[in-house]
Amino acid sequence: MNRVALITGVTGFIGGELARRLIKDNWSVAIVVREGSDLSSIADISAASTTYRYDGTTESLTSILDEAKPDVVFHLASLFLADHVPSQVTDLIGSNVLFGAQLLEAMVACGVRNIVSAGTSWQNFHSDSYRAVNLYAATKQAFEDILGFYVDRYALSSVVLKLFDTYGAADKRRKLITLIVDAVKNAQELGVSPGEQVIDISHIDDVVEHFLRAGEFSIARELPKSHVFFVSGERFTVKELVKAIESAADTKASIVYGARPYREREVMYLPAVDGKTPPWDSLVSKISLRQGVQALLNS
Amino acid sequence: MNRVALITGVTGFIGGELARRLIKDNWSVAIVVREGSDLSSIADISAASTTYRYDGTTESLTSILDEAKPDVVFHLASLFLADHVPSQVTDLIGSNVLFGAQLLEAMVACGVRNIVSAGTSWQNFHSDSYRAVNLYAATKQAFEDILGFYVDRYALSSVVLKLFDTYGAADKRRKLITLIVDAVKNAQELGVSPGEQVIDISHIDDVVEHFLRAGEFSIARELPKSHVFFVSGERFTVKELVKAIESAADTKASIVYGARPYREREVMYLPAVDGKTPPWDSLVSKISLRQGVQALLNS
Q1: Residue B11 lies in domain
Q2: Exposure string over B1-10, b if 16+ CB within 10 A, otherwise e
Q3: Residue B263 has pLDDT above 80, yes or no
Q4: ipTM confidence score
Q5: Do residue A113 and residue A150 come from a single domain?
Q6: Which residue in A45, A52, B32, B236 is deepest, having the highest Cβ count within 10 Å?
Q7: Hey, of A89, A99, A152, which one would you mutate to test binding to chain B, going by the most B CBs within 10 A of its CB?
Q8: Helices and strands per DSSP (H, E), number in chain A
Q9: Which residues of A touch B59 (CB under 8 A)?
């Protein structure tokens, strides 16, 4: 019997890549998408998995979990907004708190015990304890609070992986590393901030590996518990990142530092992760930025 | 110029009594109620305040705050459920997380800086740090973490008062103290749990006084900060509580201990409050259980 995974957020970068990996590894995969979600970008995934539509109610999730009976739920769905405007508050709470709470309730109703979800390092703005960079990160913390209750009350087994920056060929987000690689590739000028902020970057294949191992960890757990781990890769200042990309590409980039100001609440330095990485951390062979960037340049 | 308070949750016990006190003290009071809320039980309050209807959107709250321009928001609205069933998850998140987040967003949009809200000791189930007794308490913690972001990001001034048990003549909830007083009053038998659990009980007039002082504290704040204080009254085991009520009433109660089992996740002992009570705590002259019960018996 293959293991069964239920995944939310497959239309996103990490959820999609995780689904592809699970399918490749012969897991039986169920995906949950909103009614009306456009699945054209994940046709390969939906063809190789069972697709369920969520109608906004707890009851629809209960029916889904009851049918799918997953060994583990990978909860990757979230609404990401670096900044929000007032009209987005309802959607942020709906996607990042309500949907997760409904999912947990459905798990309890169906006897599904194991969940792996994605947190963000932005829950630790210049702090080793909770301090949110933005409302997105605050909603992630709010979900973690609710998750903590479900784990404790209903003996669930949970792993939250708190992510820093991630990158990879399938990433359609316009993140800084992509912009820099594109600038190198196309020999174009790129205006950036003064570039002294530190980022922590992991290749998507490593992140997916962490989710897989977290799933196994969650399934194998002896005691119900809420585990929270940081997934940490390599750390650079933005200026160092540019140099590393130039070195990997063997090309000089045309970067104009200070062309943009730092963002409001720019993350300048990162929380320490010592003792907060997963127990399997050393088993994940990290893809170096050099390798990852060369793969991006060739893609 | 009178101070202006905006209150949510006036149809509840504490919100209603706070509104009456503020009106009595010549505050200018604005109340926010849901569309369709029945205000017949608070006709005295709505007659002496400005009533605004919330339609579920952030925008409606922004319009309300923009017109009311309160010096302080007293956020007492919440959906209380000791236990929940799956169909109530959406309402719990909606009332206790989403509505509060929308309120904070509206405050920021309108330049309203001060908020006092109600937390619960049930966020500390047999623990000095966060551990929720029930989903209700978990949603309170989720709101507190979202509040923490707004305070930090937008320089709000916030006080959360974490409440234990409260009682008073206007209380329509069927709480244990009311049931015991009624049993004494009507010379009826009452079956209860084995009765060894500890409760911490405050008279509503004291709780209202704490909210008023928290409002002034919030307005007078020098630095934006998120303050969290416990409101603690007298502590008794249930058995001791019965004895104290019998003594105040000068009548023997007919209580059958062990007639009911303890609840699932019964709170048997309480978090320590040393150093976590408000700085004005000693200024609130606590109404003793004896006085409070005698007032109840005479009401």
Answers
A1: 4-166+201-231
A2: eebbbbbbbb
A3: yes
A4: 0.96
A5: yes
A6: B32
A7: A89
A8: 10, 12
A9: 86-87
